[in-house]
């Protein structure tokens, strides 16, 4: 049986997700419904992507009995509220990153998923890429010896995009792109909590972070260094340096196709899209869709590639970085 998907939100990421789905066998995946707050938008999206049903509210999707998995692709200020709607309705959920606005909201989502015995995953699609699987394999067999230092960069000029700069829309570099650098570090260090976090950054007039540098220290004198910015383009690569060599993920590190292991280059090409994409390498969203299907077939309630404990820790680290840099959202006092 095909996994029947319901998409929540008819924006840019849902478009790319739909295009990526077309690269998977139709017998395995089917987008059955698109839901938007505007029925007109939902119908337009459905026509464009050949989706049989369109809803003009999220509640209709929550009440649809013929859906196996809901993909939440709305603005992240809405993730908590919309996520709870689906989880309480007994729906399995794949929710876009960042999972929510702070760790309190994330813990709320996790607890609700457990209470309702449904699947929940934060859509850190990077974790599902074949290249990331190879990185994990190399680390497991200590191909670079003992890891001493990890660094990750992500800079993308986004100051012209309202959702990147406005506080009410959950703006800032950290929640949008810094999350990718931090999740990479946590993957390398197996979800271990850092012993210390030091962050410094500069804010926009709107009160969100424009550029941030984070240094984390882990047990056994291991370090991580992350830089992210919505003002400038950076190399967007990630490096794992060990006592016997290094692994470099070439940019874009969040959806990569080239890995350099001790100087040797390896390629992991992606399928071509049948429609123009909004974001880099978006056909790679197919990997997280397939990961979710495999989890459902095995009866799992979370993904071993992006466990809920990693999502909670990731958000706790982001809360601490925001505290040090001085970014406060209205959701923090609710």
The CATH class of the largest domain turns out to be Alpha Beta
Name the poorly predicted regions.
none
Strand proportion: 15-25%
CATH architecture of the largest domain, by name, is 2-Layer Sandwich
Keywords: Oxidoreductase
Protein name: Trans-1,2-dihydrobenzene-1,2-diol dehydrogenase
Family: Belongs to the Gfo/Idh/MocA family.
Organism: Notothenia coriiceps
Could you explain how this protein is built, in words?
It catalyses: D-xylose + NADP(+) = D-xylono-1,5-lactone + NADPH + H(+); (1R,2R)-1,2-dihydrobenzene-1,2-diol + NADP(+) = catechol + NADPH + H(+). Residues 4-121 form the Gfo/Idh/MocA-like oxidoreductase N-terminal domain. GO terms for molecular function: D-xylose 1-dehydrogenase (NADP+) activity; nucleotide binding; trans-1,2-dihydrobenzene-1,2-diol dehydrogenase activity. Its EC number is 1.1.1.179, 1.3.1.20. By secondary structure, the protein is an alpha/beta fold. It folds into two domains: 3-125, NAD(P)-binding Rossmann-like Domain (Rossmann fold), CATH 3.40.50.720; 130-267 and 307-332, Dihydrodipicolinate Reductase, domain 2. The chain is 33% helix and 24% strand. It has ten helices and 14 strands. Helix 5 links the parallel strand 5 (93-96) and strand 6 (120-123). The longest helix is centred in the C-terminal third of the chain and has 18 residues, at 308-325. It is globular, with a radius of gyration of 19 Å.
Keywords:
334 residues; EC 1.3.1.20; alpha/beta; 10 helices; oxidoreductase; EC 1.1.1.179; GFO_IDH_MocA-like_dom; Dihydrodipicolinate Reductase, domain 2; 14 strands; 8-stranded mixed sheet; Trans-1,2-dihydrobenzene-1,2-diol dehydrogenase; 6-stranded parallel sheet; Rossmann fold
């Amino acid at each position: 049986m095909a996994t029947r998907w319901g998409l929540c939100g008819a924006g840019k990421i849902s478009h790319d997700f739909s295009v990526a789905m077309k690269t998977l066998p139709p017998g395995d995946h089917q987008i059955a419904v698109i839901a938007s707050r505007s029925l007109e938008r939902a119908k337009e999206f459905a026509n464009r992507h050949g989706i049989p049903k369109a809803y003009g509210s999220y509640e209709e999707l929550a009440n649809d009995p013929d859906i196996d998995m809901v993909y939440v692709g709305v603005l992240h200020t809405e993730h908590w509220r919309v996520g709870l709607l689906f989880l309480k309705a007994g729906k399995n959920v794949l929710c876009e990153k960042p999972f929510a606005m702070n760790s309190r909201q994330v813990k709320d989502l996790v607890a609700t998923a457990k209470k309702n015995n449904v699947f929940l995953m934060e859509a850190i699609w990077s974790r599902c890429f074949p290249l990331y699987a190879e990185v994990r394999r190399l680390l497991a067999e200590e191909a670079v010896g003992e890891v001493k230092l990890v660094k990750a960069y992500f800079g993308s000029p986004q100051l012209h995009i309202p959702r990147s700069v406005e506080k009410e829309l959950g703006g800032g570099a950290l929640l949008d792109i810094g999350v990718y650098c931090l999740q990479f570090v946590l993957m390398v260090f197996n979800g271990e909590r850092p012993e210390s976090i030091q962050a410094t950054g500069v804010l926009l007039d709107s009160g969100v972070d424009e550029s941030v540098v984070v240094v984390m220290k882990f047990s056994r004198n291991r370090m991580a260094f992350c830089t992210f910015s919505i003002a400038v383009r950076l190399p967007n690569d990630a490096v794992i340096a060990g006592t016997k060599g290094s692994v470099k993920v070439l940019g874009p590190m969040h959806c990569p196709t080239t890995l350099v292991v001790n100087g040797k280059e390896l390629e992991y090409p992606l399928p071509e899209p049948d429609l123009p994409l909004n974001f880099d390498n978006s056909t790679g969203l197919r990997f997280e869709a397939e990961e979710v299907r495999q989890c459902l077939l095995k009866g799992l309630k979370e993904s071993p590639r992006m466990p809920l404990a990693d999502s909670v820790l990731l958000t706790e680290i982001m809360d601490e970085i925001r505290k040090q840099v001085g970014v406060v959202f209205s959701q923090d006092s609710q």
